[in-house]
């Protein structure tokens, strides 16, 4: 009897210990607000993209303090510090990119002007998360996920009907300029190259689409 009781107590403490360790690990994996989490090269984009749709459905405004990042959740507020001159700017993530030359963030023209990198075009920076709609995990920052978007509808019923006609398709709800839309996606890929292969396969079947990075 006492042996069984001791076993239960031992198991209880074991599981409690595992829960504590799991909580500590989760906290370590979460990027703390106000700490530098990434260093690398920044670029900026302007007139050629002004007015075009961003990845979260907004219209790109080159005079707004916004930026593109490959993996941070949309609406994350990030502090950007130019390591060449120490100048800082605060931006909101509303787009995806950049995908060239290992750059880590693409700033709006206004944001680039704030840290004096218009002329140089690129600058070494460090990034700090100031506010995020969800906790940001370190693993998620490093992970990219791509898909192929083949359609977008105003009603879930239309989107579901279309998705049923394409093998492996799924429906995801989104927002564009305050309106709910229902997008049809095919596949999930760890790199852009594999997603592009899927897009070409679909094209040969008469299904047009484009590669899109999925929000983490």
TrEMBL record:
Where on the tree of life does the source sit, at the highest rank?
Answer: Bacteria
**Keyword rRNA-binding on entry:** no
Gene Ontology biological process terms from the UniProt entry = cell wall organization; peptidoglycan metabolic process
Listed A to Z, the keywords are: Cell membrane, Cell wall biogenesis/degradation, Lipoprotein, Lyase, Membrane, Palmitate, Signal
Query: GO molecular function of the protein, one example?
Result: lytic endotransglycosylase activity
Q: What is its EC number?
A: 4.2.2.-
Q: What is a single Pfam family found in this protein's UniProt entry? A: DPBB_1
> Where's the SPOR domain?
140-214
Q: How does it sit in the membrane?
A: Lipid-anchor
One cellular component term from this protein's GO annotations in UniProt: plasma membrane
Indicate the principal place this protein occupies in or around the cell.
membrane
Question: Where, per UniProt, does this protein localize?
Answer: Cell membrane
Q: Which InterPro entries match?
A: RlpA (IPR034718), RlpA-like_DPBB (IPR009009), RlpA-like_sf (IPR036908), RplA (IPR012997), SPOR-like_dom (IPR007730), SPOR-like_sf (IPR036680)
Protein's UniProt keywords contain Signal: yes
Similarity comment text for this entry: Belongs to the RlpA family.
Q: What does this protein do?
A: Lytic transglycosylase with a strong preference for naked glycan strands that lack stem peptides.
User: Sorted alphabetically, which PANTHER family does this protein's record hold?
Assistant: ENDOLYTIC PEPTIDOGLYCAN TRANSGLYCOSYLASE RLPA (PTHR34183:SF1)
**What's this protein's name?**
Probable endolytic peptidoglycan transglycosylase RlpA
The record lists the lineage as: Bacteria, Pseudomonadati, Balneolota, Balneolia, Balneolales
């Amino acid at each position: 009897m006492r042996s069984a009781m001791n076993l239960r107590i031992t198991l209880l403490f074991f599981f409690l210990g595992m829960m504590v360790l799991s909580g500590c690990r989760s906290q370590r994996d979460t990027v703390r607000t106000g700490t530098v989490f990434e260093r690398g090269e920044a670029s900026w984009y302007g007139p050629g993209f002004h007015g075009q749709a961003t990845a979260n459905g907004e219209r790109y405004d080159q005079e707004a303090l916004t930026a593109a990042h490959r993996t941070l959740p949309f609406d994350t507020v990030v502090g950007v510090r130019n390591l060449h001159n120490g100048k800082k700017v605060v931006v909101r993530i509303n787009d995806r990119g950049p995908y060239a030359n290992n750059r880590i963030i693409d700033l709006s023209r206004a944001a680039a002007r704030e840290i004096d990198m218009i002329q140089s075009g690129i600058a070494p920076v460090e990034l700090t998360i100031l506010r995020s709609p969800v906790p940001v995990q370190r693993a998620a920052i490093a992970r990219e996920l791509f898909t192929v978007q083949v359609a977008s509808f105003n009603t879930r019923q239309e989107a579901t009907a279309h998705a049923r006609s394409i093998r492996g398709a799924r429906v995801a709800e989104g927002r564009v300029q305050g309106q709910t839309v229902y997008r049809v996606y095919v596949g999930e890929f760890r790199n852009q190259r594999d997603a592009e292969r899927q897009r070409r396969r679909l094209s040969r079947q008469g299904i047009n689409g484009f590669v899109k990075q999925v929000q983490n």
